[in-house]
């Protein structure tokens, strides 16, 4: 068995574009992704899975149709499967995402912000 120590700050330092998730590691059937965010993403859902956001630095607003959720460093929020949401970062923000392998960042919306998962 190969054990690799990964450093979140080093991983984030290698990311140059917002909204482009990179796989930090995997746990069972889940990817742990790091991402930098700035600006508004797209409204979308993940019909088959929950999505966990953990803010590392900065501030993130998860816009929901029934109200916004504000997150700061160390905060975690789970968007339930099928709930329409739109992340927004008014300042550069970094976060970890926990999602099943193969989850597309734009969910059911698709479009130009759909990213190919990158390896670190």
Automatic annotation (TrEMBL):
Q: Which residues form a coiled coil?
A: none
Q: What CDD domains has UniProt attached to this entry? A: cupin_YdbB-like
Segments forming domain Cupin type-2: 38-96
In which domain of life is the source organism classified? Bacteria
Region ranges (Disordered) = 101-120
Tell me which Pfam families the record gives: Cupin_2
The protein's name is Cupin domain-containing protein
């Amino acid at each position: 068995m190969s054990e690799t120590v990964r450093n979140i700050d080093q991983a984030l330092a290698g990311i140059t574009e917002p909204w482009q998730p990179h796989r930090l590691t995997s746990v069972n059937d889940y990817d742990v992704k790091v991402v930098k965010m700035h600006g508004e993403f797209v409204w979308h859902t993940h019909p088959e899975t929950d999505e966990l956001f953990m803010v590392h630095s900065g501030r993130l607003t998860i816009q929901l149709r029934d109200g916004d959720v504000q997150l700061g460093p160390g905060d975690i929020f789970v968007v339930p499967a099928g709930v329409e949401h739109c992340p927004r970062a008014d300042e550069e923000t970094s976060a970890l995402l926990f999602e099943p392998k193969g989850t597309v960042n734009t969910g059911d919306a698709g479009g130009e912000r759909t990213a190919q998962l990158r390896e670190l």
